[in-house]
Design a protein that fits this description.
By secondary structure, the chain is an alpha/beta fold. It is globular and about 65 Å long. Helices cover 33% and strands 18% of the residues. Helix 3 crosses helix 6 and helix 10 packs across helix 11. Strands 5-4-6-7-1-8-14-13-9-10 form a 10-stranded mixed β-sheet, with helices on both faces. Pathway: Lipid metabolism; fatty acid biosynthesis. This is 3-oxoacyl-[acyl-carrier-protein] synthase 2. Its EC number is 2.3.1.179. It catalyses: a fatty acyl-[ACP] + malonyl-[ACP] + H(+) = a 3-oxoacyl-[ACP] + holo-[ACP] + CO2; (9Z)-hexadecenoyl-[ACP] + malonyl-[ACP] + H(+) = 3-oxo-(11Z)-octadecenoyl-[ACP] + holo-[ACP] + CO2.
């Protein structure tokens, strides 16, 4: 059976850099940091007291109060981003909703809801008094379920959970459902809202996050010698994936083509990356093979690039192994330097960054570079500190998660 072609026909975003795709791209292209002191709770006693929050967010701007109280923040973000993408793609009329799916990604789900309910129970007298919306708000698949219910989409519906690779895995799952003729359109992407006491405290406990509290905007610095951990982010990104002929038949605008994807496992450690990058080598090789392209065809890699000492180095080693001399012709950048790390939502907003780089022929920067790391090859173009104009025909988005989950997604300009 011939595999069907898959294109991107709609985008949506709510991020630390802005609450629309246009605002997000403006922040990326200008090299804006989304990091600032935490406002969601009193973080004064925490080792890390800053994060990349969605600025000025008020659920009443998007939901009726009664409706909003039934959803955890990560689901609110999912609905906001997906609504934008659905409107952008013009899916309101003229599509067979039996053939439209929703495949979403979240690494944690309703952490705020879980935390609040457990604290309330612990402060009580032991009598079990729980909110009837506790479980529906907490479970990760409430995001895809709510999107489906709101729009009446009756196709495949589920959530992928693979830590920080979750939303990249949701994109590949959606891609496969369409090219195998199990759906014509899929709303996909991911969301996360883990800036809570439990989220920050938990990541502090494993020494994963930056503690540069005196200068939050300078804290996320992938590939810099002085990097000291990631900065936690929140938000959502959404893509409408659609079968190519279906999109053409209804006159949809097409942002890019999804050419292929790769999956692999480090099979090494629950939190640490394989220092030699073997799993990352394998995932990029798999992605290139699936897309039917050569290393020399790739113009830009939006790296996982979390700003951790071990992870950044392992990914760079892997890129050099896979691309050889062609690695020096690439642009490489980590947009986490601006957005922070959205965990399960990271792959979605970074897929958007890759698609927009193709659209605008502009590579967003890796900001906050001050000191070269002698362990990293300085001949590589990390797109430090300023965006760079270049023809971007093919871009790869890499995301890796705790547990050794590796995912690479390949986007390209649409081929006739």
């Amino acid at each position: 059976m011939a595999l069907r072609r898959v294109v991107v026909t709609g985008l949506g975003a709510i991020t630390p850099l802005g609450k629309t795709v246009a605002e997000y791209w403006d922040g990326l292209s200008r090299g804006v940091s989304g990091a600032a002191p935490i406002t969601r709770f009193d973080a004064s006693k925490f080792k890390t007291r800053f994060a990349c929050e969605v600025k000025g967010y008020n659920p009443d701007d998007y939901f009726e109060r009664k409706e909003g109280r039934k959803m955890d923040l990560f689901t609110q973000f999912a609905i906001i981003a997906s609504d934008q993408a659905i409107a952008d793609a013009g899916l309101a009329e003229g599509v067979d909703k039996d053939r439209v799916g929703v495949i979403w990604g979240s690494g944690i789900g309703g952490l705020r809801t879980f935390q609040e309910e457990c604290i309330a129970f612990g402060r009580g007298d032991g009598t079990p008094r729980f909110n009837p919306f506790f479980i529906p708000k907490m479970i990760a698949d409430s995001s895809s379920g709510n999107i489906s219910i709101k729009h009446g989409f009756r196709g495949p519906n589920f959530v992928t959970t693979s830590a920080c690779a979750s939303s990249s895995d949701s994109i590949i799952a959606a891609f496969n459902y369409i090219r195998l003729n199990m759906a014509d359109v899929v709303v996909t992407g991911g969301s996360e809202a883990a800036i809570t006491e439990a989220g920050v405290g938990g990541f502090n406990a494993i020494k994963a996050m930056s503690e540069r509290n005196d200068a939050p905007e300078l804290a996320s610095r992938p590939y810099d010698k002085e990097r000291d951990g990631f900065v936690l982010g929140e938000g959502a990104g959404a893509l409408i994936l659609e079968e190519y002929e279906h999109a053409k038949a209804r006159g949809a605008k097409i942002y890019a083509e999804l050419l292929g994807g790769g999956l692999s496992s480090d099979a090494y450690h629950i939190t640490a990356p394989d220092p030699d990058g073997n799993g990352v080598v394998l995932v990029m090789q798999n992605a290139l093979r699936d897309a039917g392209i050569k290393p020399s065809d790739v113009d830009y890699i939006n790296t996982h690039g979390t700003s951790t000492p071990l992870g950044d180095g392992a990914e760079v080693k892997a890129i050099q192994k896979v691309f050889g001399e062609d690695a020096y012709k690439l642009n490489i950048s980590s947009t986490k330097s601006m957005t922070g790390h959205l965990l399960g939502g990271a792959g979605a907003i970074e897929a958007l960054a890759s698609i927009l780089a193709i659209q605008h022929n502009l590579v967003p920067p890796t900001i906050n570079h001050f000191t070269d790391d002698p362990e990293l090859d300085s001949r590589l173009n990390f797109t430090f500190n300023q965006a760079q104009e270049r023809e971007v025909n093919i871009a790869i988005s890499n995301t890796f998660g705790f547990g050794g989950h590796n995912t690479s997604v390949v986007f390209g300009k649409v081929r006739d």
